[in-house]
Recover the amino acids of this structure.
């Protein structure tokens, strides 16, 4: 459901009987609304962006690194990245390069029939690496199904992400091993899981925080609205990190909301910030800010990482059917990896030897991913009935027996029937 903004409603004068207002009245009302929105957006925490970069007439966003790789000073957020060393910057660059290489290999494997499906993160590396590196080890992360870069930052082996998409397991890793929950396919449901977990963290008296990742499309889901309500009312230590990649499959953001997504937080009573999602430094800084306030009892926050999905929604999608090539080309100029590389080179923090060594390392990762995926054993068909109920369930037992009988029927059939031939 789309929430209509105040500015979008036709204003009425007292006693007008529903008649349309004059052009001058509408103009004055629009100016008043715009002024009020601007005033609200400049309040601390409501829209903390100071660097611009969103374009004329667009909401401000936090940006510390321009698309050309030039450093932007931010009085509010510089302190969160002030201690970064050249080694730290190179590490952030490596995170993004390795994540992109892994993602590219997964796309290729799907095209070769090794995976059933793959949701690419191409173009969203800065949003994921920046926010992922802002978390502490004791924080807990609830991803969607595209947070491959966050998984990398949390120490999850990339090959573990592929089992579900190959159809050999239901996740592949122990969520408690890295405080990184299994991927969630149902849109928006992980925000409720994260909110409930964060409420538990608060009751336990821990000073850790919870991060819930979601896409722009998920903000139209009722689960997300409920999560926002509960987190605000119970002052839960949760950060909602929305990667606004402009397209919810084929639906553009402007058809989902009449206001910028980060401004939705105001209606629930907690701050929202829009950050340049292709700027890894800005994503790191804003995420640290939100996580720190969550850990110290200041409650939830919404971060809208303004970025772009360079590839398809998944490998079953064809983005050329709903968006123009010119749109993608304009975002390619804002590439997060090229942006940080330009900064590293300009500052003398990295040389050609570093980039060459990293390229070789990424190719080694690609080969390892290929080898591991192709060596994944087929699961026991009956394993699908395991780990559903802790104490078992009569309906599951019945379904297990039916499926076992179905499997056994193939063993008793003639060989040509099993192969699809005609039984004489």
């Amino acid at each position: 459901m789309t929430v209509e903004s105040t500015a979008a409603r036709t204003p009425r004068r007292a006693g007008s009987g529903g008649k349309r207002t004059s052009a001058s009245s509408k103009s004055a009302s629009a100016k008043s609304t715009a002024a009020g929105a601007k005033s609200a957006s400049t309040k601390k925490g409501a829209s903390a962006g100071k660097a611009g970069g969103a374009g004329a007439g667009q909401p401000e966003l936090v940006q510390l690194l321009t698309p050309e790789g030039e450093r932007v000073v931010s009085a509010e957020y510089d302190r969160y990245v002030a201690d970064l060393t050249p080694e730290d910057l190179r590490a952030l660059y490596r995170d993004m390069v390795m994540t992109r290489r892994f993602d590219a290999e997964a796309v290729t494997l799907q095209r070769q029939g090794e995976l059933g499906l793959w949701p690419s993160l191409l173009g969203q590396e800065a949003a994921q690496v920046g926010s992922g590196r802002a978390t502490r080890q004791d924080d807990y992360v609830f991803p969607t199904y595209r947070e491959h870069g966050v998984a990398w930052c949390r120490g999850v082996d990339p090959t573990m992400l592929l089992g579900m998409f190959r159809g050999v397991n239901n996740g592949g890793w122990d969520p408690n091993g890295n405080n990184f929950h299994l991927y969630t396919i149902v849109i928006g449901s992980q925000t409720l899981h994260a909110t409930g977990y964060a409420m538990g963290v608060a009751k336990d008296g821990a000073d850790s925080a919870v991060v819930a990742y979601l896409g722009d499309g998920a903000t139209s889901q009722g689960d997300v609205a409920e999560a926002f309500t509960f987190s605000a009312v119970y002052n839960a230590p949760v950060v909602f990190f929305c990667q606004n990649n402009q397209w919810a499959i084929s639906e553009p953001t402007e058809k989902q909301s009449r206001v910028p997504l980060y401004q939705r937080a105001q209606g629930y009573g907690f701050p929202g910030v829009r950050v340049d999602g292709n700027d890894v430094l800005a994503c790191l800084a804003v995420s640290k800010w939100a996580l720190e306030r969550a850990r110290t009892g200041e409650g939830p926050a919404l971060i809208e990482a303004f970025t772009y999905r360079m590839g398809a929604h998944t490998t079953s999608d064809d983005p050329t059917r709903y968006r123009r090539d010119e749109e993608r080309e304009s975002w390619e100029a804002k590439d997060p990896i090229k942006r940080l590389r330009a900064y590293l080179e300009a500052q003398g923090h990295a040389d050609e030897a570093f980039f060459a060594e990293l390229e070789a390392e990424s190719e080694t990762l690609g080969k390892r991913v290929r080898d591991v995926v192709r060596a994944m054993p087929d699961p026991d068909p009956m394993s699908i009935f395991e780990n559903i109920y802790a104490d078992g369930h009569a309906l599951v037992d019945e379904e297990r027996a039916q499926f076992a009988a179905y499997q056994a029927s193939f063993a008793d059939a003639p060989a040509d029937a099993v192969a699809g031939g005609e039984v004489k």
